[in-house]
Specification:
Oligomer: single chain
Helix content: under 10%
Order of helices and strands: EEEEEEEEEEEEEEEEEEEEEE
Radius of gyration: 17 Å
CATH architecture of the largest domain: Sandwich
Strand content: over 45%
Shape: globular
Number of domains: 2
Amino acid sequence: MAKKILHKAATRGHADHGWLDSHHTFSFANYYNPERMQFGALRVLNDDIVAGGRGFDAHPHDNMEIISIPLAGALEHKDNLGNTVITKAGEIQVMSTGTGVFHSEYNANTDIPAHFLQIWLFPNQLNVTPRYDQVTIDIDKANHLQQLISPDPNGAGTWLYQDAWFHMGRFDKGGETSYDVKKTGNGVYFFVIKGKFTINGQELDNSDGYGVEGTSHFTILSQEEDARLLVIDVPLFS
């Protein structure tokens, strides 16, 4: 039997630090809601806006898969693995933190804000050798879900240590597509980056999140022009 959870945008946790304006879909930092701890392996989905020239100082992580998706502007990433790179809108970065990584993320521009999604997944392997990867996102084809991440190092996009798949799409008004769960037993979490969608009859607005368990096929219909959708297909556990 299908189980559904709707996270309306206005119900998310919110923290305004001046330099950082962050909305938390799941419990994070000072925002705690026992009913919003995770969706299966999906532990964090933060919608962050970082002021020009500001950012997150060097800090540690371990045994977490961390995905950053810039939506506007660019981030400057530095880590103790020797990486110093710029990730801009149209690209995606993935870190498998494994045995431990120190990294910083700063707005690469001093005059405009950077807007990005920060997403954490629990890995399916602990204490792996840390890694960093960055790839270009291609969502030029309308009304189509492009694979960004999978468990397969040889698959489209990049990969991580979890049986999870990320897809993103850009849609015209009235544009329609479908999505099938990639692994039996996984659930799917939809996040509306921009616009409005109807997914299996459920209406979703800008920045809404919608998690579904026990359903293998989804019909996705865009209600607005240039709408953007992120689809996260993850193992379910508590």
